[in-house]
């Protein structure tokens, strides 16, 4: 099942700033909702998103329950060299998701 | 226009099932137009539209073998981008064997049980929503095209009757909000004309993707009426009427709505 | 003889589970405001929080509080010696004040984030940028949040 989707250009000029859009499938249960009989539904969220570019972390996000379900994170990075962009989501109850995308830099 | 022509025209309109208050094509507006700029942008960009997560799951399921027949949808239907193009625009459609219209979810389950020899997918399950969203997505941008003939007319009439009938503790008919008061506000939300152009859709209130059936259950709960079960004939008749009432409008699946 | 009124009141009281009573916090507004101040101090410490350089964008009237598009952008050359180190977003009326924190550097090119957040009530949202020189800059935006009509579970 599609755990996460990333959208970014496949190629760029050296030094160009590229926009990366990411979507992760996750209900982001806040921990504040209750069932019809009053029991608290435990928190279950993505806690951290990180993007590494050929092994170097270039962007990191700490998420809290206030982030809407199916989190969208849009950010930019400089196209420095050809290689691989790696995206990782880590959350409660052992949740992890990984996506990679190649980038060709001229 | 002579009196005779006028009477003939009136007779035609009545026989076509056009009840008083129906919105003429030129005035039909999708709920899309009532949303804020940012919510519309969410729907327009596949990279930010959360509904696409289900569409992508649907694409995976389309190619996955299932059931005792060990066949994927793709085995019979090939590439959905061609084979499913236009399908969602003409559903609910009349099924000759069942002698009544069925909606897209039911059609998919009929294929699963009849052709793939697999158990049906539960209504509102992630798998059924994903497959329905994937199939309907292939009609995105195409005009809704429900054709009514002598066989399906009684069901259209039943749906129309339900739309115009007062029900629930609040004793409200769908038409009172969606034909007579669309564009005005109800508890902070703008009342849409209720055209199901983008189903299954991502409703911000649900924080997930859901079917037209789920949305109509919300409406029925809203007027304090007993919500029908998913797939109930009352629902499919209503869905047929709503889609027919939206004829000519473009499919938007997967839409985003408040 | 128990009157009908007494019977109804007794039944209603018996039906209210203890958990529901616990939800209604009479000091909710004050507690959340205090939590917001604590979260703010946690980020800024004793430094001055200046207005400017940060642009926080939110729709003024939102379609649904469950998912509100939010964008933050910080004016910065993003060089090795002058860049944004972190961006934080806080709210005053949500159950928790922290919304999101971004950690970045010159590699980002632009100090920016777009996401979607949950807002519990009509309120003010605060965005803070932490710069490499140790200074803190901010922007705030007001949002009006309304309840949807036609909900899933009926209102109790």
What does this protein look like?
The complex is a heterotrimer of chains A (106), B (258) and C (156). With 106 residues, chain A is an all-beta fold. Chain A has no helices and eight strands. Chain A has a single domain, classed as Immunoglobulin-like (Sandwich). Chain A has a five-stranded mixed sheet with strand order 2-8-7-4-5, with no helix packed on it. The mean pLDDT of chain A is 96. Chain B is built from eleven helices and seven strands. Chain B has helices at 3-15, 37-44, 51-62, 73-77, 80-83, 104-114, 126-137, 153-164, 174-178, 212-222, 233-245, and strands at 93-95, 100-102, 185-186, 189-190, 201-203, 208-210, 256-257. Chain B is globular and about 55 Å long. In chain B, 41% of the residues lie in helices and 7% in strands. With 258 residues, chain B is mainly α. Chain C has a domain at 47-148: Sandwich (Immunoglobulin-like). Chain C has helices at residues 4-15, 18-23, 28-44; strands at 49-51, 54-57, 68-74, 84-91, 98-104, 111-117, 123-131, 136-143. The mean pLDDT of chain C is 86. Chain A binds chain C through residues 17-18, 30, 32, 34, 36-40, 53, 56, 58-69, 71-78, 80, and chain C through 17-20, 23, 66-68, 91, 94-96, 98-110, 112-119, 153.
What is the strand and helix layout of this fold?
The complex is a heterotrimer of chains A (106), B (258) and C (156).
Chain A (H helix, E strand, L loop, with lengths): L3 E4 L3 E2 L4 E8 L21 E8 L2 E8 L8 E7 L4 E9 L4 E10 L1
Parallel strand pairs in A: 2-8
Antiparallel strand pairs in A: 1-3, 3-6, 4-5, 4-7, 7-8
Chain B lengths: L2 H13 L21 H8 L6 H12 L10 H5 L2 H4 L9 E3 L4 E3 L1 H11 L11 H12 L15 H12 L9 H5 L6 E2 L2 E2 L10 E3 L4 E3 L1 H11 L10 H13 L10 E2 L1
Parallel strand pairs in B: 5-7
Antiparallel strand pairs in B: 1-2, 3-4, 5-6
Chain C lengths: L3 H12 L2 H6 L4 H17 L4 E3 L2 E4 L10 E7 L9 E8 L6 E7 L6 E7 L5 E9 L4 E8 L13
Parallel strand pairs in C: 1-8
Antiparallel strand pairs in C: 2-3, 3-6, 4-5, 4-7, 7-8
In short:
The complex is a heterotrimer of chains A (106), B (258) and C (156). With 258 residues, chain B is mainly α. Chain B contains eleven helices and seven strands.
Supply database-style keywords.
heterotrimer; A: 106 residues; mainly beta; Immunoglobulin-like; five-stranded mixed beta sheet; three-stranded antiparallel beta sheet; elongated; C: 156 residues; alpha+beta; 3 helices; 8 strands
